[in-house]
């Protein structure tokens, strides 16, 4: 049986919904409330799976109640009861499973009940292995099968929320950043559709990926997923605070960062994150190179200078240091080969030539 509560300030609606729920044979009403505050306080004890909530209540409107319920119980499914269809958009912003119009039609309720039943069967599905790749190609895999986004804007929204996984982002900022070419009303409609799609995709894995909406702001909560962004951020933070970190991990993330963050996705807003990650890596590598120089470890200096210029080909200081060191150690042929590589990369990817100071070192 699916445990539910009903919240409506009209007692006859409570009784009608209870009777229709009982008629399904699989929905059990464990609480009925005319007072939304009482429903909010008792929800934690009853632990319902679904809440039927009237939108038009005097003490606390149903949208506010649902937001408070979802803040405490994020896996709760909400079905709104309303006399006004204009509330549909706000209902779906709050992750509503459905909304039904007053007076409630038994056939419409039965259709909604089947939707509830299907949703519960999906949510109770066994946990899967989820991996997220952000460097190079952006790919989300569930048990090695790539997620089929169907809508490109849903994919971009997930990538954006993931990029800002430590923050709650207002819907206005989201649409201004992702889809500035659209009128605000159109952009908000796109956002609502994208959110609905994401919640549909990740509903079976809500214990691992959850799209939240609170106070007009969206966020994504991710746990127990293999995400290369989290790995890179963690290693960068470790090297920033400790000299005893694992250099094998650093070697791995150098290759990852060199691929570029969301590099092949074409999301203009992702360049800022890409630059920030490369800047952090650059700072760490310069510090390591300085340490190697102090210890006169030429081999290690060459190794980390190469990693630095591979991740940031435009970093003139690192290129000069590398060529200078190669020439100093009588490796002119390698210096020339590095210059040829640098010229090719800068020309093809950035449309520029190596700096004059670098050219003069080789000529």
What does this structure look like?
The protein has 363 residues and is of the alpha/beta class. Among the domains are: 2-123, Rossmann fold, CATH 3.40.50; 130-224, Arc Repressor Mutant, subunit A. It is 56% helix and 15% strand. The protein has 15 helices and twelve strands. The protein has helices spanning 11-24, 36-46, 62-72, 88-93, 106-123, 152-163, 171-178, 184-202, 228-241, 247-259, 270-294, 298-311, 316-328, 332-350, 356-362; strands at 2-7, 27-33, 50-54, 77-82, 96-101, 130-133, 139-142, 145-146, 169-170, 209-214, 217-222, 226-227. The mean pLDDT is 88.
In brief:
This protein has 363 residues and is of the alpha/beta class. Among the domains are: 2-123, Response regulator (Rossmann fold, 3-Layer(aba) Sandwich), CATH 3.40.50; 130-224, Orthogonal Bundle (Arc Repressor Mutant, subunit A), CATH 1.10.10.10.
- What is the number of beta strands? 12
Please describe the biggest sheet, giving its number of strands, its sense, and whether it closes into a barrel: 5 strands, parallel
Query: Class by helix and strand content?
Result: alpha/beta
CATH class of the domain at 2-123: Alpha Beta
Termini, distance in Å? Answer: 80 Å
Keywords:
single chain; 363 residues; alpha/beta; Rossmann fold; 4-stranded mixed beta sheet; 15 helices; 12 strands; 56% helix; elongated
Give the helices and strands, then pairings.
Layout: E1 2-7, H1 11-24, E2 27-33, H2 36-46, E3 50-54, H3 62-72, E4 77-82, H4 88-93, E5 96-101, H5 106-123, E6 130-133, E7 139-142, E8 145-146, H6 152-163, E9 169-170, H7 171-178, H8 184-202, E10 209-214, E11 217-222, E12 226-227, H9 228-241, H10 247-259, H11 270-294, H12 298-311, H13 316-328, H14 332-350, H15 356-362
Helix pairs in contact: 1-5, 2-3, 6-8, 7-8, 9-10, 9-11, 10-12, 11-12, 12-13, 13-14, 13-15
